[in-house]
Amino acid sequence: MKHSTNQLTRSGRGPARRIGRSLALVLPVVLVLSGTLAVTRVNWSGNPSDSVLTASSEDLAARAAAAPAPQDVLRDQLLLELQDKDPGTALTHLQQAVNGQPSLAKHCTSIARALGRAAVRVYGPSRAQSYSRPVCDTSFATGVAAAHS
Length: 149
Prior knowledge:
mainly alpha, elongated
């Protein structure tokens, strides 16, 4: 009986022991290789222009500076829509954009004022005022009044 109990104990830890031994051999090799690769990526020259990280961050900064802000894109789209269709359609789309993307709410009044000023240029003060509605409070009407005065 003692022989069968001893065999069960050995077979119970056999696969785990083999996996442990394999990890004990492979893990240090992986760590040394990854450390070596990390050291080769460091800019040891001290010259920032040689750095891969600096180059990529400069590219990101240039792209961020070149890309217009979402509120500027929305304002430009709505100004074009105001000219192509009418101020009412542009105001409806402004309200939908603010409802769909709440981060634009803080820019809503300035966009509505810009639409009001553009409406006066395109339609004249009386007709532009007829499109006024309470989008972003009364900012559109304020823009109309400011452009008319």
